Amino acid sequence: MLCLSRLDCVRNKVWVATFGVLSAGMAVLSSFGLLLYCGMPFAMTVATAPFLILGIGVDDMFIMISCWQQTQVHGDVEDRMAATYKEAAVSITITTLTDALAFYIGLLTPFGSVQSFCMYTGTAVLFCYLYNITFFGAFLALNGRREKSNRHWLTCMKVPEPVENSEKYNICSVGGAYDHGTGKEEPMPINNFFKTYYGPFLTNNWTKGFVILLYAGYLGSSIYGCFQIKEGIDLKNLAADSSYVGSYYDNEDEFFSEYGPNVMVVVTDSEFQYWNESARNSLDSCLQNFESLPMVSQNGTISWLNQYLAFGKMTNLNLSEENTFKRNLSAFLERSDFVQDVNFTDNTIFASRVFIQTVNVSTAVDEKNMLNELRETANDCPVKLVVYHPAFIYFDQYAVIVSNTIQNIVVATLAMLVISLLLIPNPICSLWVTFAIASVIVGVAGFMAFWDVNLDSVSMINLVICIGFSVDFSAHISYAFVSSNKRTANEKAIDAVYHLGYPIIQGAVSTILGVVALSAAESYIFRTFFKIMFLVIVFGAVHGIVFIPVFLSFFGICGAKVGDEEDAGDNPQDNTYQFKQKGNDNIACENNF
Asked: Where does the record place the SSD domain (predicted)?
């Protein structure tokens, strides 16, 4: 509302901003209501989605209003809406398709929490788009009718128009000012800043050289950070900061760091003959194989079977005989601590377990290696064994998190390339959009390591988000660059940042404001969401208004009609370009770098 407020009582768009945010809120309600009605599981990670959808919806709103302000104020509302949708609809369609597709590709991951988040958020993105081009568009048309009638933004009463060439008028009783030279709304001062100062500064050769050096430093730091990133999630981070679980794990790390999980080795064969000496020797041999592993203590095995055999020896029982073994087993279990270690039902031992003690398991890599080696040892044993510990559900993700993350990123990036090629009428700009996606992903992944964020299922969700958001800013700028009727690549870059530089900053700031509340949350999941979203938005915006315009100016290829030459730019004879006739009515410009 602050960004869209004006001192002019007619051009003020506070209500437009209000309905834009309301449109995003309706998208959250509709998508969540639909999926909950369909029985889709709601994981805790989904609770971060509304913050994200508000950011996406407001971004699209700013783009549509920016295009509306470029139309003729005295034109028919239908014509202004047509011109607005002609420019904005393609741009927000590209970003919606890429965002939604990025989330739905996240369904390929085997993690249920990630699947739930991606389904809810991807559906919300589609609803957000639907409401933006219908509900919000309808209100934009109603607001256009109010502006055309020169009515007050609050009272809807007609007010006198300001006197031409006079900048002094009462903002409460006079309004409807516009640029009489262009017939459009008067641009905001920051728009003029982008056109008059920032654009020419950015396209200066010295500035371009500095931008290239800056990007090289950014890319080098990011790649270095990617090699420093850690895998895995600390179990205490799954609880709130105020939970006693956190202090429990801290004390465990401080006083018992040399010990790892106490892993159970389960005999799952209901036909295993525990009373048979040969079968017992096979089981003992398997346990010795476990104890020979470097991360297993040789003296830490706890076995009910060994204790039972010792009990039989003390009481002169022949436990090598099946009936004697089974007849005395129930009594032994009830008088010992092993009652939960044997499933002895209907005179049959369906399963049993022994415990082995792991040691020197301190990092996520140690945990992954331990899990893999224990499972390989169990598979090599002639006895049917399963190794298990409650923490294995978290260790399991370490084995696949890297491969799944890379798979999702590659598939989504290729999908973004296809969409960009279909909707952006220039293959080189489409490639630059894809390049921006890869660049932002590398930057976010690298700086995650510098901000103490590990690669786990939580951060993997955010990297999927990264794909969708990184395409937003670069797609808007690239499409504006291609659509510009300016002749030279530098002029196209200036024109693109003039029209979309401010909306990109508005969208970036509004999205960060939407998630900044999560930075103070008492949950690791929400704080991680904020950190990565912050990196995504900052890097995406910098790519959109700094890196991409400069890179496009190097490789700019444009097309213009001969009849439009008078609109091509302020300096059509720019000596850095030469124009060649293509056919009868087309001109293509070639960069002479």
From this structure: 1-142
Give the C-alpha separation, 569 to 555, whole Å. 18
Cα(511)–Cα(55) distance, rounded to whole angstroms?
4
Residue 265 pairs in a beta bridge with 354, 387
Q: Residue 118 belongs to what H/E stretch?
A: helix 112-131
Q: If DSSP codes are grouped into helix, strand and coil, which group holds residue 126? A: helix
* 383, 272 Cβ separation under 8 angstroms: yes
CATH code of the domain containing 85? 1.20.1640
Tens of pLDDT, residue by residue over 340-385, are 999 998 888 999 999 999 988 877 778 888 988 999 999 999 999 9
Token pair recorded at residue 359: 């040691």
SS3 506: helix
Reduced 3-state DSSP string for 170-218: CCCCCCCCCECCCCECCCCHHHHHHHHHHHHHHCCHHHHHHHHHHHHHH
Task: Give the C-alpha distances (Å, rounded to integers) separating 336 from 157, 333, 342.
Answer: 88, 5, 12
Q: Are 275 and 170 members of one domain?
A: no
Looking at residue 1, the DSSP 8-state letter turns out to be -
Predicted local confidence at residue 170, as pLDDT: 53
Q: Residue count of the chain, please give it.
A: 593
Looking at the 3D structure of the chain, how many domains does it have? 2
What spatial distance separates the first Cα and last Cα of the chain, rounded to whole Å?
44
Domain contains 196: no
Give the DSSP H or E segment for 386. strand 385-388
Residue 294 pairs with which residues in a beta bridge?
none
pLDDT at 31: 95
Q: At residue 184, what is the residue type?
A: K
Q: Residue 349: inside a domain, yes or no?
A: yes
CA distance 576 to 76: 41
Segments in 136-179 forming alpha helices (H): 137-148
Tokens standing for residue 367: 């945990």
Q: Buried b / exposed e across 495-522, counting CB within 10 Å, b at 16+?
A: bbbbbbbbbbbbbbebbbebbeebeebe
Q: Helix H segments across 270-321? A: 277-291, 304-314
Q: Alpha carbon of 199 to those of 388, 473, 540: distances in Å?
A: 61, 17, 18
pLDDT in the model for residue 356: 93
Claim to verify: residue 159 and residue 293 sit in the same structural domain: no
The DSSP symbol for 363 reads: S
> Which domain, by its residues, includes 133?
1-178
Say what the alpha-carbon torsion angle 420, 425, 429, 435 is, to the nearest 10 degrees: 10
**2 DSSP assignment:** T
Residue whose tokens read 């009582």: 9
38 within some domain: yes
560-569's contacts with Cβ under 8 Å and 24+ in sequence apart are 560/485, 560/487, 560/586, 560/587, 560/589, 561/585, 561/586, 561/587, 562/586, 562/587, 564/485, 565/487, 567/485, 568/485, 568/486, 568/487, 568/491, 569/486, 569/487, 569/488, 569/491
Q: Which residues of the chain have pLDDT under 50?
A: 558-593
